[in-house]
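Memo to structure team: turn this sequence into structure tokens by end of day. - J.P.
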Amino acid sequence: MKVLPMGERALLVELADGTAAAALHAELLRRRAAGDLVVREIVPAARTVLLDGLDGPDTPLRLAARLPTWEIPPLPARADDVLEIPVRYDGPDLADVAALWDVPVRDVARIHAAAEFRVAFCGFAPGFGYLTGLDGVPDVPRRATPRTAVPAGSVGLAGPYTGVYPRSSPGGWQLIGSTDAVLWDHARVPAALLSPGARVRFVPEGR
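Reply from structure team:
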């Protein structure tokens, strides 16, 4: 763990991997809910957690000294239900992913739908979650040439992550499906369908 000051009221914690970052994020949320930590924002990323708006006794200097001494418990299972996202496995890159995984094209949907995913962090665009949990198959590289426009609702793979494009945008992920689920809605509270720590399954339409 490496703790770096970010201005007067923030810290950036660098960790060894995404699992460690997720565990620290969960522990920070627990301590804030218990009143043991005063911080406005706790923002996870691939291998970092940002604490912004530290106040009260938890000034950045004091917390930076204490954080490395914490015993961080393993990532707990969330008690809430698994969010199911219906998906049509009709993406243009299905054959490429199948070749990489050395399976028939039809098995890409079976493998992807069998996994339980967890939202590791959010970014790139409002409502875009980076989901982990696709184990036992090779990571999928980004496309050598990104597409100039990926349709909203496209389900893609890149590296160890699965994601759903909340709006049309350029993108280099390998597209394996599409969904009508609304990932970001200003009129909804919260606006984002996905939040860090949420459990997600993709359900083939018609199953």
